[in-house]
Amino acid sequence: MEVLWSVITMGALGFLFSFGLVIAYRKLRVHEDPKIEKVAEILPQANCGACGYAGCRAFAEAVVKGETTPNGCPVGDADVVKQIAETLGVSAAEVVKKVARLHCRGTHEAAKNRGVYIGISTCGAAHLIGGNKQCSYGCLHFGDCARTCPFDAIYMSEEGLPIVIEDKCTACGKCVEACPRNLFELHPVSQGIIVFCRSKDRGPVSRKVCKNACIACGICSRACPEAIVIENNLAIITDYKKIDPEKIPEVEKCPTDSIGRLKKEDEG
């Protein structure tokens, strides 16, 4: 008899607790917009965080809530943006493809060594002790950028500099974060002319430690003053859109090749 009552009591308690859970679920459950799942499925699932959110799912929630725009995912192409916009019933913003660009031409041959580096073979570690190169602004050649790229869009050349494979680059920004000397920037792929230097040393000092360093001679700024200035001993492009293609040959008379087209076949 005692066993029977125990079974009945346990059954009643189980039913009571189950009923309570059902009530709690109906009262407390969070209604998720079905569009979130649809947008999440459209996204490339890179989970790189370049959009500013923890991952693709978090970005999907944000875009559905209106906290960001359909083109907020740098990895997604125009087709992804279009699909997201159609799912949300909004207009698709124009997508401008961007890629990572390296602002340095300090190859093994061009940039002089400070000495023999013996230590952890990472840019981050080498930078902490001043690096293995006499130039304190240039590439350290250990490839942190290539290792951190989740899309295998960067490899180290025999000359010691990282090479960006533009067809693979998604402008996720991981290389920008990885470089301790801030040598990477994200540029529109159509933007072909850049300054390949970050040195702020005076011209004679820069030229002494790297043959390809900017020496602030002013040839480029005189050729195109509306778009290029000299600040802190370094050429700065203030407005890429104002660079006159006809003036590029004059700009490229730079004696150290520290400014010019990324590819000579580019128009600008």
From TrEMBL:
4Fe-4S domain sequence ranges: 31-90
Keywords from the named record: 4Fe-4S, Electron transport, Iron, Iron-sulfur, Membrane, Metal-binding, Repeat, Translocase, Transmembrane, Transmembrane helix, Transport
Species whose genome carries this gene: marine sediment metagenome
SUPFAM superfamilies reported in the protein's UniProt record: 4Fe-4S ferredoxins
TM region positions: 6-25
Domain 4Fe-4S ferredoxin-type per the UniProt entry, residue ranges: 125-159, 160-189, 205-233
Pfam family, one: Fer4
InterPro entries (alphabetical): 4Fe-4S_dom, 4Fe4S_Fe-S-bd, 4Fe4S_Fe_S_CS, 4Fe4S_Ferredoxin_RnfB, Elect_transpt_cplx_RnfB/RsxB
NCBIfam families (alphabetical): rnfB
Taxonomy of the source species: unclassified sequences, metagenomes, ecological metagenomes
Name by which UniProt lists this protein: Uncharacterized protein
GO molecular function annotations of the record: 4 iron, 4 sulfur cluster binding; electron transfer activity; metal ion binding
